[in-house]
Structures are given as C-alpha cells and as structure tokens.
Design goal:
The structure holds two protein chains of two kinds. Chain A has no helices and eleven strands. Chain A has strands at about 5, 10-15, 20-25, 30-35, 45-50, 55, 65-70, 75-80, 90-95, 105, 110-114. Classes of the chains: A mainly beta, B mainly beta.
Chain lengths: ~110, ~120
C-alpha cells in the first residue's frame, strides 16, 4: 500500500540554524500539507500546497518557514533560523484530487532545537 | 472558523469494556470528520471518516462513530476494548477544496486512552 515517507525521523539542531525536513508524498497525490505537534499538544495545521504554490497557511507559518516541491516526488519544509519553540513533531500529509479530504500522514520528523 | 473539542483529556477503561470518546465540532458547512489514532512515537493512522450519507460509519479495528448534526458531535465508540487500543485519539474536521479552503484539517486536543487488564 502506498505511504507517505519522511526523513529524517529525528533532527537535532542548534538554535539559529537552518533545517530542511523532507517528505515524499504518495505519488499520484496533488495536495500536500505540513502539520506540527508540540509535545503534549494537539496537531496544528501549518501550510497547504497545491499546483506548485502555497494555497493556505496558518499564522504559525511566518517568514522563517518555506515549502518547496523541488522535483516530482519530494516536498520539503525549511525553517531558516530555528528557535527553541520550533521543537516539535512535524507531519507531512498528502491527498488525491478526489478524496473527500482524506489525508494520509507520514510518520513524522521529531525536531529538537537546542 | 472551524474547531474541534475533545472534552476528555484522559480516559481509563478495563479491557473488554465498552468505550466512547467524545468529539464536538464547529464548521460553517457540512463537515468532513475524521478520527485518527496515534501510538507513542508514531504517526497518525486514520480510523474512520464521515463525508455524507449514513451517519453511522464503521472503521478499522472495530471502531465506529456516529455523526449527529443537531448535536454537532462525532463520537467514537468501540463495544469491547483491547489492550492494544491504548493510544491517543484525535478527532479532526475539514472541508473540501474550493473557495477559501484547500482542505486543512483542524484537530482536537486528543484523548489519551489507558486500558487496564
């Protein structure tokens, strides 16, 4: 069964450093999403991406964040200058064109900012 | 704005007992509703979903949920809980793409389920 994959599973970085989280969505999907979950809190929407551009973003998704689909398979989230409060689990999700918004989630990347 | 409330942060049941996890939503149109389960250190697995039609939906692992529009609820149930059901459960609401929405999901706070032997 096709699945969403994410790398790395765990990333440790120093405050102020740039990180790139990578996702490979399901191959025929067209909508892509990033969510994050701070430890002990709920899952929060960050951004959605469709047709090679951001379609919606939350207030969390400020200028420090960017997304990109550099080729036909990868979908990346970049944090330019990490802060302690960026420590969280980051989930990538994707869905097809006609899927009643059923999103398939990857296993997540745990980001730890020291 | 869409929102989800899961009033129970932590529920403990005995193995073999029945289970009901509560979820209330707020959404301006007909919602798409989901229940996800998350085991420690794992990702989100979809248990079941409601789009339209029959208000009682069946999911994986013996779970079911009932959509009640008048009560804006989508409670998750299981008649007999197994020890392997211990996990955190998230209710989520979203809509279809179109207009100003590209289908973002809004999640509740989650309910942690503990199962006693």
């Amino acid at each position: 069964e096709p699945e969403v994959t994410q790398t790395p599973s765990h990333q440790v970085t120093q405050m102020g450093q740039e990180v790139i989280l990578r996702c490979v969505p399901i191959s025929n999907h067209l909508y892509f999403y990033w969510y994050r979950q701070i430890l002990g809190q709920k899952v929060e929407f960050l951004v959605s991406f469709y047709n090679n551009e951001i379609s919606e973003k939350s207030e969390i998704f400020d200028d420090q964040f960017s997304v990109e689909r550099p080729d036909g398979s990868n979908f990346t989230l970049k944090i330019r200058s990490t802060k302690l409060e960026d420590s969280a689990m980051y989930f990538c999700a994707s869905r097809g064109l006609v899927s009643y918004n059923e999103q398939f989630f990857g296993p997540g990347t745990r980001l730890t900012v020291l | 704005a869409q929102s989800v409330t899961q009033p129970d942060i932590h529920i403990t049941v005995s193995e073999g007992a029945s289970l009901e996890l509560r979820c209330n939503y707020s959404y301006g149109a007909t919602p798409y509703l989901f229940w996800y389960v998350q085991s420690p250190g794992q990702g989100l697995q979809l248990l079941l979903k409601y789009f339209s039609g029959d208000t009682l939906v069946q999911g994986i692992k013996g779970f079911e949920a009932e959509f009640k529009r008048s009560q804006t609820s989508f409670n998750l149930r299981k008649p007999s809980v197994h020890w392997s059901d211990a996990a955190e459960y998230f209710c989520a609401v979203g809509g279809s793409a179109g207009g100003t929405s590209y289908g973002k999901l809004t999640f509740g706070q989650g309910t942690i389920l503990t199962v006693h032997p």
